[in-house]
Amino acid sequence: MKTPKYLSTLSLAVIGALYGSSPAWAAPILAPDLASFAVLGAAGVTNVPTSTISGNLGSAPNASVGGGYVFTSGSLQANTAIAQQAQLDLDAAITALNLMVPSSTLGPDLTGIIFPGIYSVLAGPTNLSGNLILDGGGNSNAVWVFQMASTLITSTTSNVTVTNVGDGSGVGLYWSVGSAATLNGATFAGNVLAHDLISSDGNLTLGCGRLLSATTQVTLIQDTISIGCMDNDATTNFEASGGFDQGVDIGSGGTGGPGNPVPEPATLALLGLGLAGLGFSRRRHG
Predict the structure, then answer these.
(1) Residue 231 pLDDT more than 60?
(2) Which of 68, 117, 180, 218 is the most exposed place for a label (fewest CB within 10 A)?
(3) What are the DSSP calls for 79-124, one per residue?
(4) What percent of the chain has a predicted confidence (pLDDT) above 90?
(5) CA distances from 152 to 63, 75, 106, 123, 158 (A)
């Protein structure tokens, strides 16, 4: 099939940029310094030994990071330059998540099966009372964003499992929490970006994700937090997922669906140039 003469080289380049395999000018939600942390608190980190950490653990501007950790990777970052930058990155990440337009609103109890999307979650006494299954529908680029205006509270009988996402290499899972996060269940998954305190009642396994507090502290009690990622259902291998931080910013398939990225502003400018060239070529060949 011949390409019509009126499709200029520029027009073809624009089409390739819009519908090619790579998202155009998309930035990760978690910048590199922030992504290196498994645990980050602005006002410090406390711990009841022994907690196992895969990734950096730190705090800024408060330099109190406690002790009694076993690191499988990463190190302590007590008000270091990387911790300070990570806190700035955290503010930017929370802003980006909260600017996303929800695809739907969910009730406060998130038990059952939830498919990829951007969700606004209603406030309630608890947000997870049982088993929550995040089903990617076979998409290794599935993305979930849960926008919670107030608290995130899980019961002791709750568990979060990510499934049906292939190797998980492109998965993004974010919990944007307007106030405090209290994780009492046995297992959890994803990146908790909370404005206030993050805590658990002990022995929490967050096998693939992070605990990140923007203004307060993170309290650990014999917990296991990993950006590795560990398998949280003994049947899947998410080592390629980077801690479920692979979902990218607005305009690059944020709902995790198979569709094409929404063009970013720079791409839209190129599109305009391409369409102008298309019209000019049509007039010449008309």
Answers:
(1) no
(2) 68
(3) S-HHHHHHHHHHHHHHHHHHHSPPSEEE-S---EEE-SEEEEE---
(4) 66
(5) 26, 27, 13, 8, 12
Per DSSP, the residues of 9-53 read: HHHHHHHHHHHSSS-SS--BSS-HHHHTEEEEESS-EEEES-EEE
Nearest to 25 by CA among 245, 248, 246: 248
What pLDDT, in 10s, does the model give residues 92-144? 999 999 999 999 999 999 999 999 999 999 998 889 999 999 999 999 899 99
Rounded CA gap, 60 and 231, in Å?
Answer: 30
- For 15, the token pair is 């089409």
pTM of the model as a whole: 0.79
Does residue 200 surpass a pLDDT of 80?
yes
The two three-digit tokens of residue 90, written as one number: 């955290």
